[in-house]
């Protein structure tokens, strides 16, 4: 039972970075032009670094231990095709919510991986949760900025939407 609570807690904390990042994006409007641009570049670079760290330090080593190279290509290609299909569907329907979709399309598999890692190497789960949270914060930041420009939803409703995403992490971790 304590493992379940640990999985739920880690996934929820990693997911809580999404609405926190969205909330922080509201403050970038008070910055002057060049500082705002530099802040946005830093946030995006931080998120990319967190993603690369998660992949290099945890996901690839753990994946190589469990799945042979040729078999690993199949889910990788299926994931790429699914992302392409989702992007094409959004484009056809006039939507431009790529940051939001990208955030969802990696948060769910990441928390599934978190749940799986927790069963095999509980010590590694804390590192992975930290890396997921470090990546989710800038993704929430950028997704909210994108929705600000492309959606008629008021900020309060967007923040509620981001808060509603948090429980998806614990659900995905428990599935694993």
Word description of this protein:
It is built from seven helices and no strands. The protein is mostly helical. Helix 1 packs antiparallel against helix 6, helix 1 packs antiparallel against helix 7 and helix 3 runs antiparallel to helix 4. It is globular and about 45 Å long. The mean pLDDT is 81.
Determine Rg (CA atoms, Å): 17 Å
Instruction: Classify the helix fraction into a percent range.
Output: over 70%
* End-to-end separation: 15 Å
Percent of residues in beta strands: under 5%
Shape summary: globular
Largest sheet: none
Helix/strand structural class: mainly alpha
List the helices and strands and how they pair.
Layout lengths: L1 H24 L7 H34 L2 H24 L5 H23 L1 H29 L4 H11 L2 H8 L1
Descriptive terms for the model:
mainly alpha; 7 helices; 87% helix; 176 residues
How do you describe this structure in short?
By secondary structure, the protein is mostly helical.
């Amino acid at each position: 039972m304590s493992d379940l609570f640990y999985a739920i807690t880690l996934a929820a904390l990693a997911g809580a970075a999404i609405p926190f990042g969205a909330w922080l994006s509201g403050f970038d409007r008070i910055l002057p032009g060049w500082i705002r641009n530099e802040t946005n570049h830093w946030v995006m670079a931080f998120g990319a670094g967190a993603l690369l760290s998660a992949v290099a330090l945890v996901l690839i080593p753990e994946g190589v231990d469990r799945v042979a190279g040729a078999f690993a290509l199949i889910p990788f290609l299926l994931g790429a095709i699914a992302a392409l299909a989702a992007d094409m569907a959004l484009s056809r329907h006039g939507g431009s919510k790529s940051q939001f979709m990208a955030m969802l399309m990696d948060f769910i598999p990441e928390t599934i991986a978190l749940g799986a890692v927790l069963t095999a190497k509980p010590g590694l789960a804390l590192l992975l949760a930290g890396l997921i949270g470090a990546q989710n914060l800038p993704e929430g930041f950028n997704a909210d900025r994108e929705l600000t420009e492309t959606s008629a939803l008021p900020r309060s409703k967007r923040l509620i939407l981001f808060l509603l995403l948090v429980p998806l992490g614990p659900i995905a971790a428990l599935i694993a």
